[in-house]
């Protein structure tokens, strides 16, 4: 069976072709619980067991012996090297060489993407948009005569953009702008072939004479293959085989998050303030002075006003309450896409807490509230959302799913109406593999993928 799905197709055809690959492309390996960042678990490796956004602690990364300057967490690298050695031996025993198997040529190419660099590039794009606004609109620019005035325009712009573009490190880490590769658990064995081309995936990878051995051998070493990107391996930390490699690195599943990861919200608040300084000072470099024509009895008098660089004192002069209110507002919009009645009550609550308990305790409490993920992004709920019943190979039409069956299956865990509404909203986009919170829209070091 061939699969012809790719992003260049019309929406309807792409839906049908992508649906065929979704249901049948890797169905042979359904019992191996393949990784699925599109339809099942987009946040794997990006949130801890408490729901907090996380990134790897770079003290525990390690280079691959084979590969193109590629890194991952130390136990992942060790597991991969053992898997690769065993895979090569099996290929040799079966008399299969690189002449007949493309899989033997693959080496780690895009593994750990540097989150901080990726986030820097993301904020740089936002700054360029702010800079363009001030460059092209003289009225806005003249209003930004000092740091305080600049902040009014800057925050207005951010709030208008936040619905579609996250700004905080935490918001960015959980967005579709960030690839799964920031986790240190993902190994991409090539970076050339496009991940949206289903026919290429079948012909070049799935039909490879060693593909079955590759998938099953990976499972023996605690990895799973990504069912949507067959050249991608994902370390499954719950598997006993992967826990063996954790153990030889002096770790356990229980202390994984404490040892190997950092919470993104730590330092996010100070970073939020520092970005405003960096943006303003970069703006000054292009427009250090503004000219104003002031009317008088003698006609127009030309007045020139210099802009002065901001510093830490400029931040402090705004007051902690000012910064906390802005930070909370933007975090709330990132999370819930709007400012509503609940926001006002919560804002008041945390402002009171700030005065009574101080900044550190208030931030910690606030971040715990924001770390709670909605139930309809859990793996079980997402599987139900993207389960449309039986897909006919001949017609590419789904049938056979009864809504009441779905309701019964979900009634004890989540709101059924919410799931069905969400499924209808994202149905076409999801099946054509776009915008499901797992694709890289910003090209990171070594490249990214668009599905």
Characterize the structure shown.
The protein is mainly α. Helices cover 49% and strands 10% of the residues. Strands 4-6-5 form a three-stranded antiparallel β-sheet. It has a two-stranded antiparallel sheet with strand order 1-7. The protein has a two-stranded antiparallel sheet with strand order 2-3. A hairpin with a 2-residue loop joins β8 and β9. α16 crosses α18. The two termini are 21 Å apart. The C terminus is likely disordered.
The total of helices stands at 18
β-strand number: 11
Indicate the structural class.
mainly alpha
Overall radius of gyration: 25 Å
How far the N terminus sits from the C terminus, by CA atoms, comes to 21 Å
Question: What is shown here, in short?
Answer:
With 451 residues, the protein is mainly alpha-helical. It has helices at 11-25, 74-93, 115-136, 138-143, 147-161, 169-173, 198-206, 211-220, 240-248, 256-260, 268-286, 312-318, 320-336, 341-357, 359-370, 379-385, 403-410, 416-431, and strands spanning 54-56, 61-63, 71-73, 186-188, 223-226, 229-235, 261-263, 289-296, 299-306, 390-391, 398-399.
How do the helices and strands line up, and which of them pair or pack?
Blueprint lengths: L10 H15 L28 E3 L4 E3 L7 E3 H20 L21 H22 L1 H6 L3 H15 L7 H5 L12 E3 L9 H9 L4 H10 L2 E4 L2 E7 L4 H9 L7 H5 E3 L4 H19 L2 E8 L2 E8 L5 H7 L1 H17 L4 H17 L1 H12 L8 H7 L4 E2 L6 E2 L3 H8 L5 H16 L20
